[in-house]
Amino acid sequence: GEELIYLDPHTTQPAVEPSDSGCLPDESFHCQHPPCRMSIAELDPSIAVGFFCNTEEDFNDWCQQIKKLSLVRGALPMFELVERQPSHFSNPDVLNLTPGEAELSEGEL
Known about the structure:
17% of the residues lie in helices and 7% in strands.
């Protein structure tokens, strides 16, 4: 459909104090509110979106459906599915770094 179901982790809660054993209570990282709904049209384009696929088969099916939708719509897709990381993401020249450049000598500290 045209709606998204989401869990909003951006709710305030008291700071969690670890127990003597070092464990944190599970409640500290679970959503305390039921899932919410919103129209896809209301989605902020800069938001991070996650999808849950129960099995590898579900994931493969989801990938095929997304690829079909991106071809049908004709507009720029919200995201793309690629087989491997684009080369410009792993190119050290993008950050103007050369091997060893990140290491500073004692005189530079």
